[in-house]
Design brief:
This protein has 438 residues and is an all-alpha fold. The protein folds into two domains: 187 residues, Growth Hormone, Chain: A (Up-down Bundle); 193 residues, Growth Hormone, Chain: A (Up-down Bundle). The protein has 17 helices and two strands. The protein has a two-stranded antiparallel ribbon. The two termini are 23 Å apart. It is found in: Cell membrane.
Length: 438
């Protein structure tokens, strides 16, 4: 069953109230309490959802500087310490499935608040943990709680905005998506100047308390009762089956997951490539890493300016994936021929910056599939991004750390695959809708 409302409809079940600004442009407010065109309320909404979106990167990356100390104090091996990172990734993946599905049935606020409560409790228990196995289990539950923030943030945007406006909002969230992975280890490192690894989890617990209070006071329910779906196993299975059987959903979701795989490959391999092979100092590597992250953020902000004015989401996505594929090819050629470091850095910058266009546009195209189950669609998108993306990291390591070619081939291969699935599956809905629009 497709969404019966037009693409520019107000939030699910919301009644519109119209007024006009001084310049005569319409001013629309819905009974959900969120003013879709008021800049101040929209900025507040963006800040709250940005904080929820940051949960994943902060949970994954903030404790990385403390990982060696953590393993020593708990008497664990490095492999056991790394297992705590794997556990949180699994929690983030499967937690999105649960929270997204439940939020389609009971609304967004309740599962979000429960997730924040779980996150707070498990963060405190992580800080008190004295055993690496208990810590691993707690990290899984911590990721499970953090997943509620990530998946419900995406679904809430789709509840309130559609079309170009939603694409621009998702692009604005790229500011958080790009900066959080950079700032998280820095924050974690600064925390270690004053305390030990347990203090990192205390900071994360405090962050969840702030977001809990802000959510209670300032984030309204975005999915009114009339658009909620019954929470029954068969109904849930039919929802997931319907989404996965849609070529456009599967194509765009896989395109997003494969693009995320390029990011995972870059994060897992770039430190070895740029420091051990090309001889960059840690400070120079941080500068290069930060420059690429700024490119990712800039891509998202430029995308927000272009979408709907210059091109559609699908057109911008095609251009971005094509640019990323060309950059990936240049990356492989650079390593194969032995071109100087600036060529490698330039290719990496273009590819990572292109992802700033890819992620918001794939998210919008995926969530546009069926708005009444946007929570479930957001959940499947999150799972695909984490599962497909996480598979790229070990592929880079399998090729060894003595050459930049494994990282280059994986990045080029997954971006080329992302472009292929978008062309073969993801663009079907766009081409089918074009005649109807005319």
């Amino acid at each position: 069953m497709s969404d019966p409302r037009p693409s520019d409809a107000p939030p699910s079940g919301a009644r519109q109230q119209h007024s006009h600004r001084d310049d005569g442009t319409p001013h629309t407010e819905t009974e959900t309490g969120v003013d879709n065109s008021g800049l101040r309320r929209k900025a507040r909404f963006a800040l709250i959802l940005g904080g929820l979106t940051a949960f994943g990167p902060l949970t994954i990356d903030m404790y990385l500087p403390a990982l060696p100390e953590l393993t020593r104090e708990l008497g664990a091996t490095s492999a056991q310490g790394q297992l705590t990172l794997t556990a949180v990734l699994l929690g983030l993946a499967f937690g999105q499935l649960v929270a997204g599905t439940v939020s389609d049935s009971v609304g967004r606020r309740k599962p979000l608040l429960v997730g924040l409560g779980v996150y707070f409790a498990t963060s405190v228990l992580c800080a008190l943990s004295g055993d690496v196995y208990a810590l691993t289990a707690l990290r899984f539950l911590q990721g499970f709680g953090a997943a509620a923030g990530m998946v419900i943030a995406r679904a809430s945007v789709r509840d309130l905005y559609s079309g170009v406006e939603a694409s621009r909002f998702f692009s604005s969230l790229m500011l958080v998506t790009g900066l959080a992975p950079i700032l998280a280890p820095v924050i974690g490192g600064q925390v270690l100047n004053f305390t030990n690894w347990r203090g990192v989890f205390v900071v994360l617990a405090s962050f969840s308390v702030v977001l809990f209070l802000v959510t209670v006071m300032a984030l309204p329910e975005t999915k009114p009762g009339r658009w909620r779906q019954p929470l029954r196993p068969r109904s849930t299975a039919r929802t997931f089956g319907g989404l996965l059987s849609s070529p456009s959903f599967l194509g765009n979701a896989l395109a997003a997951g494969l693009a995320m795989a390029a990011m995972f490959a870059y994060v897992s391999g770039s430190s070895y490539v740029l420091q051990d092979i090309y001889g960059l100092s840690p400070q120079a590597y941080s500068l290069a890493f930060g420059s690429n992250a700024l490119g990712l953020v800039a891509g998202g902000q430029i995308n927000a300016r272009l979408v709907g004015r210059i091109a559609t989401e699908s057109q911008l996505l095609l251009c971005a994936l094509s640019a990323a594929a060309v950059a990936g090819l240049l990356l492989v050629v650079t390593v194969a021929v032995g071109l100087p470091l600036p060529f490698l850095l330039g290719a990496l910058f273009v590819m990572i910056s292109s992802l700033g266009f890819v992620m918001p546009n794939t998210t919008m195209l995926v969530l546009a599939e069926r708005q009444e189950v946007s929570g479930s669609a957001s959940a499947l998108l999150g799972v695909l991004q984490f599962v497909v993306g996480a598979l790229a990291a070990p592929l880079v390591g399998l090729g060894g750390v003595g050459s930049a070619m494994p990282m280059s081939l994986v990045m080029f291969g997954v971006v080329l695959a992302s472009l292929t699935v978008h062309l073969t599956l993801g663009r079907r809905s766009t081409s089918a809708a074009a005649p109807a629009a005319g």
